[in-house]
């Protein structure tokens, strides 16, 4: 299924290859376009400059490195995002207390509902 031209573009920041593949397959079926994906903080920050992004899904832990610099850059650009993590809200910096957190593992319905909520904030 090809996403519509006006579909929201979702940037995926995730280091688990299988999850990236899952999201790349799933998002278009939910009406979203994949704006790209990055598996590290450095790659994500570079890709933010090169891609048009409407929403982002950001894993908190990228191969042992916290993704908070990516979240800061998204916030500076006014791009709504959510965190994914296996650890829940624990350990999140206070500055991200209002950021949605989707607990891993998540299901299709979970990511769909979370992205719909993000869209509402645009």
Automatic annotation (TrEMBL):
Q: Which SUPFAM superfamilies does the UniProt entry name for this protein?
A: CheY-like
Superkingdom of the source? Bacteria
Q: Which InterPro entries match?
A: Bact_response_regulator, CheY-like_superfamily, Sig_transdc_resp-reg_receiver
Keywords of this entry: Phosphoprotein
Q: Give the sites modified to 4-aspartylphosphate.
A: 59
Q: Does the keyword Nucleus apply?
A: no
Domain Response regulatory: from-to ranges: 9-119
Q: Which Pfam families match?
A: Response_reg (PF00072)
* Record's protein name: Response regulatory domain-containing protein
> What organism does the UniProt record list as the source?
Pseudoxanthomonas japonensis
